[in-house]
Amino acid sequence: MKVAIINADQRNPANERMHKAFADSLAFEISQHYKKPIPMQTVLIDARDASQGLSNGTYDLVAVIGTNVPSILLNSDFKRLKAVPTTGNAKHIVSLLILKEDRTLSALMERSFEKALNETFFQMAFASYRKSSVERDMTHWNVAVASLQ
Predict the structure, then answer these.
(1) How far are the Cα atoms of 28, 39, 45, 116, 117 from residue 140, in angstroms, in the given order?
(2) Which of 56, 75, 100, 144 is 20 to 30 A from 50, alpha carbon to alpha carbon?
(3) C-alpha dihedral over 143, 2, 45, 120, to 10 degrees?
(4) Model pTM score
């Protein structure tokens, strides 16, 4: 599977580690469902390429890290799962976009996305990204299908 990642916080040195941890955690959750390893590749790209790639099948998923999902991705062809930390920190929202017509992947992501965010590997990378101690400050997530606005 291929995941396109958009991250507005380009200057954070922990970005690459967090992106890899996200992909690894998501791959683990999907692999658990299928009972076999599912490899996950990530690519950091801009919103236009992500939108085109999700539409034409180049990418299976698009992850947007940060507050705002670029308007080009607020497309009625895409389903958006929005994860908000229970701390309420809007700076650390993670959105996952899936092609709406891919009902199988969409249902799988509804079950797997929150679990992937709560995996220890991702939690450690996310704590480093936001510069906190994972022992003191685990991030729990609320995930829901988001509207296009």
Answers:
(1) 18, 25, 27, 11, 8
(2) 144
(3) 50
(4) 0.85
